[in-house]
Amino acid sequence: MEGTVRHLGHLSPAVARMAASPHTLEGFLRMSALFESTTLDPLAREVVIMTVATRNGCALCVDMHTGKLRGLGAPEELIGRLREGKPLPDERLDAVREFTLAVYATAGEVPDAGLEAFLAHGHTPQNALEVVLGIGTYTVSTFANRLTGASH
Predict the structure, then answer these.
(1) Shortest CA distance to 48 belongs to which of 113, 132, 144?
(2) pLDDT class for 108, splitting at 50, 70, 90?
(3) Most C-beta atoms within 10 A of its C-beta, which of 21, 122, 127, 129?
(4) CA-CA distances (angstroms) from residue 84 to 32, 55, 74, 119, 125?
């Protein structure tokens, strides 16, 4: 938790509640750091996170990552569409959103056409697996936040 305070400048209620299980908190923080170091660009990573957050109904996550997107200079239209779960105006980023949803819908068994559509927008097979890492990471976060009541 001390590292989170140093990184964010405060202890978020979600982190404090997740700390009821130090293993869960540590797992999430490690996975999050790994996800942040992937070859997906920062906006693509945030698309994965926001897609997971909206799909899983974590209002806290949506609000936190809206702020992160604004900090990255993302256009308001992009942010609004992510918050609403709608197709994105940027086709490359929308391919990330669609692929994230396809991974969820198929429990990872994305049809060849879905993977090819993702790759056709300049993404790589490595990026596809990094999306899976992001889904896992932020599924832990969104589920924990919902379970502990931090998502409201």
Answers:
(1) 132
(2) very high
(3) 127
(4) 24, 10, 15, 25, 28
